[in-house]
Every structure is written in C-alpha cells, then in structure tokens.
Amino acid sequence: MNTWRNVSFAVTAAAVMALTTACGQDKVTESPDSRSVGNANPAQQPADSGYGSDTGYGEDSGGQPAAPRAAGQLAVWDSEKLGEVVTDSRGFTLYRFDKDTADPPKSNCEGDCAKAWPVVPAGGATAAPGTDGSAIGEVARADGTKQLTVGGWPMYRFAKDTEPGDAKGQGVGGTWFAAAPDGKKAAPGAAGGARDDDAGNPAGLAGMSVREDPELGDIVVDSKGMTVYRFKKDSAWPMKTACTGACLDKWPVVPPVGKNDTDGILKKGFVVFDRPDGVRQQTIDCWPVYTFSGDAKPGDTNGQGVGGTWYAVSPEGKLVGAPA
C-alpha cells in the first residue's frame, strides 16, 4: 500500500570538429542525446518522437496548456512500485524528461509538448523536509519564465494525472519518468541505499555513473553497476584500439551512452569511437572503455591490474591505481 510522508541537435559543427581534433581521428561521433530506459513497453508506448504518442507529445491533452501552478512545499511519495517519488504540495507526481539536460539545466519540452506535460514553475517551491535543499533550483525557459529543477532536471506534471498519487506518465515514450527527491529517476529500493532489481543487481543507474570502491576510490560503472576499464595499449590522441578479435571476448566494449544518461562523468571528450572493426564504443576523455568478462557481479574489480595493462577508470577517464 502506498504511503505518503513529508520528507520531502544539435551540437554545432564547430563543436564536433573540436572534439574530433581533440581526439585526433576522423571517426568520432557525438554520443546519442538520450536513450530509452525504464519499464515502458515499446509496443504500448510509441516512441517515434520521444514524447510517447503518435502525434509526438505524450497524450492528446487538447486545448491550451493549463496556467502554471506553483509546486509549494514538495513532498515525497513512498511508492511500492516506483520507490521514492517527489510530488508537489498537493501530492501530484513530478516528472523528468530524458531529452532535457541537467548539466547545464535545459528544457526541451515546448509548444504542444508542454500541453501534455505542464511545466512546474520555480516560484514558491521549497524542498521537502528531510531532503537536500541544495537540489532545488530553476532554469530559464525560452519564453523567459522560470521552471523548477531538482538535481538540475526540469520538472513537469502530466496532464493525464488527475488525482494525487497518479503516475500515468511513468515510462511514456521511454523518455518520461517520475523524479526521485534528488532528481534522478525514481526506482524501487532506492530509499536509503543502493537500487537493486529482483536479481540483486543495481537498478535505475545511469548509463554510466560513479561508484566509490573501498580500495580504489571513485571509479566508473556501467548501467548494470559493472566496473569500467581502460587498456594502457590504447590511444586517445589519435584515438586507436589495441584490443581486437579474441581480446573483445574477454574485454567487451562499453556501447554508446547518451551524455544525458551519465552521472558524475567528465563530458569533455565523451564521444563514440567508430572502431575499424565496425563496433561502436564509448569513450571517456577520448579513451576507449571496456568491461571485464571476469567480473561476475556489480562491485567486482577482477580486471584491475590484469597483465599490468588493464585498470579501472576514474570519472575523468584516467587509469586508477596504475603505476606511475
């Protein structure tokens, strides 16, 4: 039973050229702007436009967008299905959009999109009791109005939510998700600890994020919580890989990850490497990155130091624990 508690595209050609030059090779492409994650059923949630309906805006809300309603003091809804969800003072679910950005904050929902997903104005909003007040902020929209942000993510309501506790917007189009009190996507099991799925693996993680390892310090992990590695024989300037053929069976590449689907990772040089073998590989600071087949579960670092050439990766893309 749900309980309530008050705890509360385009990159310019110049930018692409700059990244290409920095990485020293021609086959570099921008990471995808977003990717569909969550529990939306593609058969039920059309995602052609990323808004979740055939017309591209989540739902046909009809008419004009409602006048913005202040959020007031935020609260936290402890949902069995979704985990901790941030709500406005009336108990209506607040959402985030994968096609927005949090660093820097920017809303990409305008026009008809904002009819289906009314923006939450920044004025009069305060943090839920017991939550981090510094996570509350604002962003200037194209029309000059200020929109509430949580953890940098612009906040919205969903036009089809008609009662407190509704969360009909969850997973729409694979891009709309209920927001947690820290601005991340709400996920079961997130309250007070790691987010785990039924198999015991971290759930709700960004495509790439940072984990504090007790021995190595801050290291990068993928969306499954698996440690990410670099190979000393690779090169970033120019970008080259020395892991080919059978090596890739042991050290699978990290596939492309959207910049917006990262948490704490250096975004400069965060580009996709089109390898000579046709495989597309994510890089950090232009360095190709991998996982290790010998890591059986999240938290394993069995690849650390293998052959004196494989090491975990820091959030800045550096080798962790490698000899000087």
Number of strands: 20
| Element-by-element helix/strand order | EHEEEEEEHEEEEEEEEEHEEEE
Q: Tally the helices.
A: 3
Beta-strand residue percentage: 15-25%
Polypeptide structure, described:
It is a single chain. The protein is mainly β and 324 residues long. It folds into two domains: 9-35 and 207-324, no CATH class; 39-194, no CATH class. The protein is 6% helix and 22% strand. It has three helices and 20 strands. The chain has helices at residues 13-23, 112-116, 247-250; strands at residues 3-5, 28-30, 75-79, 83-87, 95-97, 101-102, 105-106, 136-140, 146-150, 153-154, 176-178, 208-213, 217-222, 229-231, 235-236, 239-240, 271-274, 280-284, 287-288, 310-312. The protein has a four-stranded antiparallel beta sheet, with helices on one face. A hairpin with a 2-residue loop joins strand 6 and strand 7. The radius of gyration is 21 Å and the shape is elongated.
Précis, in short:
The chain contains three helices and 20 strands. It is mainly β and 324 residues long. The strands form eight sheets. A four-stranded antiparallel sheet has the order 2-17-18-19, with helices on one face.
